[in-house]
Amino acid sequence: MLKIFISSHGHFASGIKSSVEILMGPNPRITVFDAYVTQESVQEHLDKFYETVNENDTVLLLSDLYGGSVNQVMYTYLEKPNTTLIAGVNLALVLELAVREEITVEEVKQLVEQSREMLRVVEFEKNEEVKEDEDFF
């Protein structure tokens, strides 16, 4: 089974989980920890999380910022079996992961590339012709 642990500086991780739940409903395979908002540590929560992981589970650790302190702690768990760490998480990636129960490392890499495409500057095109959709009315 795929298990996902998301952690961030502040409430970003719980915000992503909230967005996933609004769009898709509850997902018990997603665990989150908001770092630095209480005295609890990322390591404490990862240790508790790994108590729920079975030897056949695939674990994805998702952090908000590559090289940040949360990511650095999560990096130390890469020695655990079937564990992959992704830094710079966004909602598009989590939504794609949330619908899966199993995933390969190659599939993870493909989804990371796809989620990068969702990050873009959106500019207003002044000369774009607005067309009415006849089926809409």
Number of helical regions: 5
Instruction: Please state roughly what percent of the residues sit in beta strands, choosing from under 5%, 5-15%, 15-25%, 25-35%, 35-45% or over 45%.
Output: 15-25%
CATH architecture: 3-Layer(aba) Sandwich
**Largest sheet geometry:** 4 strands, parallel
Residues in helix, %: 25-40%
Structure commentary:
- By secondary structure, this protein is an alpha/beta fold.
- It has one domain (2-117): 3-Layer(aba) Sandwich (Rossmann fold).
- The chain contains 5 helices and 4 strands.
- Strands 2-1-3-4 form a 4-stranded parallel beta sheet, with helices on both faces.
- Helix 1 crosses helix 4 (91-98) and helix 4 runs antiparallel to helix 5 (105-117).
- 25% of the residues are buried.
